[in-house]
Amino acid sequence: MKTTFAVFVLAAALSATGTLSAQVATGREGSDEQQIRKIEQDWLEAIQKRDASYLEKIEAPDFIVTGPEGRTLNKSGDIKDTTSGETNFEQMTIDHLNVRIHGDTAIANGVATVKARTKERDESGQFAWTDVFIRVHGEWKAVSAQVTPIPNSPEEKPAPNEKQHE
């Protein structure tokens, strides 16, 4: 499966043109959490649309992603992989999302259900992820992402001739 799944978290049903600016106001931490939640949703939508401009905007120059198969890509590799069209993301839904803010750093841990296909196979299933963001000049930027497939999720089907563990 392509590393693209790391980006869906990815890593969160709003427009990809929304602002990423940090708000300086009472309750900033709550506002920061809402911004990260919106970014995560927008990121999913950008992946489904193969929107390179959103990925370019949200990923820091030194962004690194480790995908579900352990392959690591930098920002340019991730954008190329996501926009190649090799994987068709039909539906991506965030099932759970926990956001923690530590000053100018945010950590998002989530689980998403993905319905996707490549030419060769169904890539659907549930995936857990961790995304790390830093605030740069008032904007949240993703610096790291990691995605792990959740074994035996309801959407995951064993390959032909693959033994199921009891």
Brief digest:
This protein has four helices and six strands, in the order αααββαββββ. The protein has about 170 residues and is of the alpha+beta class. A hairpin with a 5-residue loop joins strand 1 and strand 2.
Explain what the structure shows.
By secondary structure, the protein is of the alpha+beta class. 25% of the residues lie in helices and 37% in strands. A 6-stranded mixed beta sheet has the order 2-1-6-5-4-3. A hairpin with a 2-residue loop joins β3 and β4 (105-117). α2 runs antiparallel to α3 (52-58). The longest helix has 22 residues, at 28-49. The protein starts with a helix and ends in a 17-residue tail after the last strand. The model is unreliable at 5-26 and 159-166 (pLDDT under 50).
The whole-number mean of residue pLDDT values reads: 82
Tally of extended strands?
Answer: 6
Radius of gyration: 16 Å
The backbone outline, from C-alpha atoms, is globular
With strands numbered from the N-terminus, the spatial order across the biggest sheet is 2-1-6-5-4-3
Number of helices: 4
What are the segments in which pLDDT stays under 50 over at least 5 consecutive residues? 5-26, 159-166
**Helix content percent band:** 25-40%
Order of helices and strands: HHHEEHEEEE
Largest sheet, described in full?
6 strands, mixed
In whole angstroms, the N-to-C terminal distance is 25 Å
Beta fraction? 35-45%
Structural class: alpha+beta
Key terms for this structure?
single chain, globular, 6 strands, alpha+beta, 166 residues, 37% strand, 4 helices
